[in-house]
Amino acid sequence: MLTLRPAVPDDASLILQFIRELAEYEREPDAAVATEADILRYAFSEHPLVKVVMADWEGQPAGFALWFLNFSTWEGKPGIYLEDLFVRPAFRGHGIGKALLQHLAALAVQEGWTRFAWQVLDWNTPSIEFYEAHGAKVLREWLPCRMDGAALQKLAGSGE
User: Fold this and answer.
1) Cross-strand partners of 54
2) Is the dihedral of CA 91, 92, 94, 99 positive or negative?
3) 123: which residues sit within 8 A by CB, 6+ positions away?
4) Chain segment 89-104, per-residue pLDDT in tens
5) For residue 126, is pLDDT > 80?
6) For this structure, is 131 an active site residue?
7) Which site among 2, 43, 70, 74 is 20 to 30 Å from 55 CA-CA?
8) Longest C-alpha distance within the chain, in Å?
C-alpha cells in the first residue's frame, strides 16, 4: 500500500504542490515562493543540494520528505537535516510520516552519519507529540536563528 521512492525531475511540480500545502498548514501560505525551476535546479542538477523522498499510498501521491546533509564539527561527521516532512491530511493515520522518518534514520545509520535533525513549530502540538513518541528530543535550549531579506543584504555588505 505504501511506496517510498526517490523523487525524479517529473515530480518537481508535485513537490512544489506539497510545499505549498505544507505552507498552508503552517499558516504561512504566502511565504512559499519557491518555483518549479528552483526544485529542478536544487534537487535534480548534476550536484543537487537537496534530496526528496516521495510517499505514495495505493498509487496516490501522499507526502514527501525533503532533506540535505549538515555537518557536526564536534563529531566530525555529516547528518541529515530534514527541511520538510508533509503528509496530506487524507493520508494521515496510515504510518506514512513514521515510514518517512524511519527511511531517513535508516539511511543515516547505513551511511555512518551521526545525527538526524529538524525543526517543528512550537504551536504544532500534534507534530511535537508524534516526534517525541518516536524518540526525538525537542531541544528547547537551542534557539533557531535566521537571517534573510534586508538583514542578509546588509550583513553581506550590499545593503544600506
Assistant:
1) 5, 64
2) positive
3) none
4) 999 999 999 999 999 9
5) yes
6) yes
7) 70
8) 55
Name the 3-class secondary structure at 159: coil
Helix or strand (DSSP H, E) at 18: helix 12-25
Identify the active-site residue in 25, 42, 81, 131. Answer: 131
How many other CB atoms are there within 10 angstroms of residue 89's CB atom?
9
- Asked whether 120 and 131 are in contact (CB, 8 A), the reply is yes
How far apart, in whole angstroms, are the C-alpha atoms of residue 93 and residue 72?
A: 34
DSSP state of 30: G
Nearest to 116 by CA among 74, 76, 68: 68
As a three-state string, the secondary structure of 63-90 is EEEEEEEEEECCCCEEEEEEEEEEECHH
- Kind plus residue range of the DSSP H or E element containing 4: strand 2-6
Does the domain made of 2-118 have the CATH classification 3.90.190.20?
Answer: no
Sequence ranges of the domains in the chain: 2-118
pLDDT in tens, 70-124: 999 999 999 999 999 999 999 999 999 999 999 999 999 999 999 999 999 999 9
